[in-house]
Amino acid sequence: MSDNMLEFDRKPLEGVLALSPLCLNDDYSIDYDGIRSNIEWLERQGAHGFIQFATMGQSMAPSEAEFNEVTDLCVDAAGDITCVIGSSASNQQEAIRRAVYAEEAGADGTLLELPYMIPLQEDWVGDFYSDVDAELDELGIIAYNYPPATGVNISPETWHDELLDIDSVKAVKDSNYATDHYDRMLNLTEELNVISPYDCHFWHDSQLGGAGFIGILTWVAPKTMLRFYEECKAGNHHDEWVRNVNSTLAEVWGGVSSLPDRPIVSNSPAILNELAEMSGCEGGPVRKPYRRLHDEARIALEEAVAPLIEIEQAL
């Protein structure tokens, strides 16, 4: 799939990695059958992998027992696609526990942001990832910079000076969208797999060596997003179809990001669950204190993604 020279002990961390929602029943218990059926659906669509327990996938929600059971289920359900389990937590001890459990269960990688209760100082960042690395043997880490949750913005210089020599750090997802910052991150593509934080960034990032993207809109247009990935990796950025998809993604994401009375940062889990349901997959409610979208926001979301679904239906 990739000409990247990085070596992985398990499946590579690249390609279209769809965010898997934490499916819940109406009583807020975990819908394990729903999670399994969603993963099997992604494999049938051709997705390269999935990430369970990302921020939009309610990484903050599970108990220890629930995390373990969902992780075991995901590894079993993954089949031939890459299984990434998010190990982010509010403290380092739990982050390490989750990462070690994911490795022992057989996951291929882990998505890991900084502990998010009290912001770290930036010069502690390298020590955090080194401490996690010391407890792992094979599991690849996608190091995740998400300032809205952690209160820390990891600079490209910190990535370069402190994280490149950590063996298990194989990839990075950087959700700082300042152009100068992000383009400097893409200078690391020869040493790390840079994973675009959303589907709509990949047209730009792939031209600078990006290795894949986090699939969110992929739920409503899987064939489109997989073809878009392949065309961009092949260098066909100025093909008419590719440019049309790229401009549509920008338009769609703008609508998704500005739902009425539902800012995306606090409502991202609800948005992911709704997108999965639009494809006929499972979503369900979001664990309190977070909430589902209200009717007006849900209608606005459907209207926002309609242009992308139209492209999907034409394939």
Give the class-level CATH name: Alpha Beta
Q: Can you say what the CATH homologous superfamily is?
A: Aldolase class I
Rounded radius of gyration (Å): 18 Å
Q: How much of the polypeptide forms β-strand, as a percent range? A: 5-15%
Q: Percent of residues in helical segments?
A: 40-55%
Tell me the major beta sheet. 8 strands, parallel, barrel
What's the total count of β strands? 10
The CATH architecture designation is Alpha-Beta Barrel
- Please give the count of helices: 12
Widest sheet: strand ordering = 1-2-3-4-5-6-7-8
Low-confidence stretches: none
Tell the overall outline: globular
By helix and strand content, what is the structural category?
alpha/beta
Q: How is the CATH topology named?
A: TIM Barrel
Order of helices and strands: EHEHEHEHEHHEHEHEHHEEHH
Q: Averaged pLDDT, please? A: 93
Number of domains: 1
**What's the end-to-end separation, in Å?**
22 Å
Short description:
With 315 residues, the chain is α/β, with parallel strands linked by helices.
Question: Overview of this structure, please?
Answer:
The model has no long low-confidence stretch (mean pLDDT 93). This protein has one domain: TIM Barrel (Alpha-Beta Barrel). By secondary structure, the chain is α/β, with parallel strands linked by helices. The protein is built from twelve helices and ten strands. The two termini are 22 Å apart. Strands 1-2-3-4-5-6-7-8 form an eight-stranded parallel β-barrel, surrounded by four helices. A two-stranded antiparallel ribbon has the order 9-10.
